[in-house]
């Protein structure tokens, strides 16, 4: 079936809402009070906003059921969208006239697209956890451009940091960031993704963050990268949000001596709501991870907080259990595996081994012993290394015992070691051949050849 235009899809959704309504909801027997009319219009606009958001999420690749679930638990964000409509069409509201589907679409879709560009993979979390930690900061900074077209806001922000006004210098933000190590194009890129950044005060917003990062041991050279990854950090209140969040994370086990590494790896961690963090921590505890280990996971792999419990962590844990792997142990050793899609990545990896004669139980054992095996590329890693494994004529059980084989470089480690071993006329198990140092490897070969 050919793709339907956006207007048609939204009209169809609106029509379905009307068709589902009771006759009493559609029939107005007598003139209604202004308050009653307004209430009815608001209810209709909420449904319209939900329809636009659902459509937008599906256009971004989410399944219909997932998009519907996100919309249904995002009441705060839906109210936010309705408020945007009220600002955009203030005169229409004064007249008490109902907005059309195209008008609602034209107002909301550009805004949602701008949010998507700004937040990328974190958009769903912004929607579900609205208002996010930096929403109030952004609203305050952009109140003068409340709902003018987003492209206009972006152009104004970029112009602000690109050219000086007549007789004036560039905003102090620009020279400060240049001194920090950024170039002008990098500053523009930040503003393109997050226009409000152009209006941040150096003394009240950016300097305090930079000073905190330096106190935590972050290198000067790493600070520009942190700001580029998450410019919203500069807008978060130090006393009300950022420091309390750090204290909370430390209370659940994040190593405060490692803050510089944690923030450099994943600065978005400090922009999440406490509710989001608590939801993830509760799931890890439910999985069987100890409090001490939860802190270690968050310290070593803070980006686990970007994974949705319902859409990533829980389904992935269930899948690993289904093949006999210990999900609690696995998430501690290889938390990055829990950000992968079951159908697109995990199941194909399991099927790769099943097609080559391994049992489900053996795949589970390999996952327990080498947690990242399901994160490896089939074409670039597993397939070429498995083909060379067959050429070495080792029994299949060697891979089950030592799946770490797939973690070594084929050209720099496996092939050279195998050639050296066979050149000596000896045979070592995979573990002996690959896991020891060069010096230890030579000693093992020397002892083996001496016995020939």
UniProtKB/TrEMBL annotation:
Organism: Zea mays
The gene coding this protein: MTERF5_0
Any GO MF annotation of the entry: nucleic acid binding
Protein name as annotated: Transcription termination factor MTERF5, chloroplastic
PANTHER family xrefs: CGI-12 PROTEIN-RELATED (PTHR13068), TRANSCRIPTION TERMINATION FACTOR MTERF5, CHLOROPLASTIC (PTHR13068:SF9)
Keywords, alphabetical: Transcription, Transcription regulation, Transcription termination, Transit peptide
GO-annotated biological processes: DNA-templated transcription termination
Family matches, as Gene3D superfamilies: Transcription termination factor 3, mitochondrial
Keyword Transcription: yes
UniProt similarity note: Belongs to the mTERF family.
